[in-house]
Amino acid sequence: MLNLQTKTEHFTNPLYLESGRILEPYDIVYETYGELNEAKDNVIVVCHALTGSHHAAGTYEGDNKHGWWDGLIGQGKAIDTDRFFVICANVIGSCFGSTGPMSAHYPYNEPYRYKFPVVSILDMVKAQRILFDRLGIHEVHAIIGGSMGGMQALAFGVFFPNFAKKIIAMATTHATQAWAIAFNKVAQEAILKDPEFKNGYYDPKSIQENGLSGMAIGRMAGHISFLSPQSMERKFGREYKRTDGLFELFGKFQVESYLEYNGYNFTKWFDPLSYLYITKAINIHDLSRGFDSLEEALDKIVSELYLVGFEKDFLFLPSEMEHIATTMRACGKENVDYVEIQSDYGHDAFLVEIDKIDQYVRDALC
To answer: Where in the chain is the domain with CATH 1.10.1740.110?
Structure first.
């Protein structure tokens, strides 16, 4: 059974961040599926990507929108909730209930906005680790995530090496490279230069009702990086809107309509300051920070590490995933496996082409 439950934990002890700053108090919203067994050894942690949330599977009452990895999590699925107890926590800095830039800044009861500290992937992971301790979970069967979720999974392996028996990281990297940073820069600048952003002092209700044009433009750039030329050709080709004239200046191809719809719709449900903070966390992600080398960092991983790259992922290249595996093997570590999935969908393949990763995940979790 799925047994979906959504909960919030409130923490009053300070969370010491990589930057040297402190976050206190703070909340973490999380969702669980399945049942925790008596030995507490059937736990799987799912880590979400940039615009994901704790809602990874199932549907809420009165809502038909499934969780973002519903195809992978559930009864009889690769992450089988008849067997595993699955936890997905919303990261700090996000806008879906965990403490973020638009949360009330204690004791002033006004949103943090720019007073919210810059958080890193490691900070997100540390907060989750504190959550699991409170829940009495000190070791898990596996951690799995893609993209920014994969960054978190790898950080768990490096900085909490005895926490997970297995780690599955997909479509991610050991350190965000210039190509991905450049796409994030377009989105960040588009948000900052939008007059309706009001230098971070916007009315969130107004944004939810009307959207934010600058953020929509940035999200369009993001969507391009999530797909591939092949998937765009297959999905849209040169299809033109039937209601538009070919020689109308603002007549649209279907791909243009797709980007507009997804871009503007996105701004009504994702907070712009959270977007800025989380893309900053992605940009500064580097597993080797604090170590003398990447080799020294990866040498900390004692979990069975499963790495999944996707052939046409142009945001986090499969070669970046393979580099992690070859670096570990060069250090004499054999607890790593790398597979490249043949896919022309692009970066979002780990979310969309579940059939191509299903068996690999099942085998890794055995």
So the answer is: 180-280
**Per residue in 211-235, pLDDT tens?**
999 999 999 999 999 999 999 999 9
Which residue numbers are catalytic? 147, 313, 347
**pLDDT band at residue 1, thresholds of 50, 70 and 90?**
confident
- In tens, the pLDDT along 230-253 reads 999 999 999 999 999 999 999 999
C-alpha distance from residue 246 to each of 249, 254, 300 (Å): 8, 12, 58
Q: Which CATH homologous superfamily contains domain 5-176+285-365?
A: Alpha/Beta hydrolase fold, catalytic domain (3.40.50.1820)
List, in order, residues 6 or more apart from 217 with CB less than 8 Å away. 186, 190, 263
CATH code: domain 180-280 is 1.10.1740.110
